Amino acid sequence: RERGSWSSDSAESDGSSDSDGGLFRVLLLGDSGVGKSSLTNIFAGIQDAHGEHSGEEIYERTLTVDGEDSTLLVMDTWGTEGDEPWVQDYCMQVGNAYIIVYSITDRASFESASELRIQLRRMRQAENIPIILVGNKSDLVRSREVSVEEGRACAVVFDCKFIETSAALHHNVKELFEGIVRQIRLRKDSKET
Ligand code: GDP
Ligand code: MG
């Protein structure tokens, strides 16, 4: 049934083929300090708020969304290896879905998010990859530099979903990962018909 793609003999085949088991690689992209690891740790169920690094960068968890199980392999590997170009290329190629994070308190990180979206589009041209744009640190109201409207408008331009989260308050984090599962399923379903 499949030809020409990578090996598709296990659930760990690349997501452009039908990975029956529903294992999806989700990468977090974004500037350093925006909260990628904090969001990942919440996904992984790691509670220790003070330990900067748990050592691991890839977490697997099965979520039940709309009555159906999907397993996400969440990869917090962006910008952790001294930004070597091959790591960046690898990250851009390996994901089945992307979470692009900026901090609402850091306009430069919002601009970086746009650049990342463009880079992703360039590298994965033919594919309709699920992406969610995330404005994190929504609890820091008084140091907000990027409005909700700007975030939303950016997502419209980039044809992706948008959500504001607070890793500190665990606000909307569950919704974020459920959202990525739904986006993956939507694209998958439309491909199959
Ligand atoms: P990364 O470099 O993108 O992985 O960012 P981290 O997850 O390491 O977070 C950088 C800093 O921002 C840490 O001190 C976090 O505690 C803090 N941080 C992350 N998310 C939030 C948030 O939603 N609200 C607040 N107030 N601080 C956050
Ligand atoms: Mg980190």
Task: Please tell me about this protein's structure.
This protein is α/β, with parallel strands linked by helices. It has five helices and six strands. It has helices at 36-44, 85-94, 107-123, 148-157, 173-192, and strands at residues 23-29, 58-65, 68-75, 97-103, 131-136, 161-164. A six-stranded mixed β-sheet has the order 2-3-1-4-5-6, with helices on both faces. The radius of gyration is 16 Å and the shape is globular. The relative contact order is 0.17. The structure holds guanosine-5'-diphosphate and magnesium ion. Guanosine-5'-diphosphate binds at residues 30, 32-38, 136-137, 139-140, 166-168. Magnesium ion binds next to helix 1. This is GTP-binding protein. Interacts with Calmodulin. GO terms for molecular function: calcium channel regulator activity; calmodulin binding; GTP binding; GTPase activity.
H/E series: EHEEHEHEHEH
Counting DSSP E segments of at least 2 residues, the number of strands comes to 6
Percentage of helical residues? Answer: 25-40%
Number of distinct helices = 5
Radius of gyration: 16 Å
Please give the alpha-carbon distance between the first and last residues: 16 Å
Give the CA-based shape: globular
**Ligand identities:** guanosine-5'-diphosphate, magnesium ion
Q: Low-confidence spans: pLDDT under 50, at least 5 residues? A: 1-20
* Widest beta sheet: strand line-up: 2-3-1-4-5-6
User: Main β-sheet, in a few words?
Assistant: 6 strands, mixed
Overall mean confidence score, pLDDT: 86
Strand content: 15-25%
How does the helix and strand content classify structurally?
A: alpha/beta
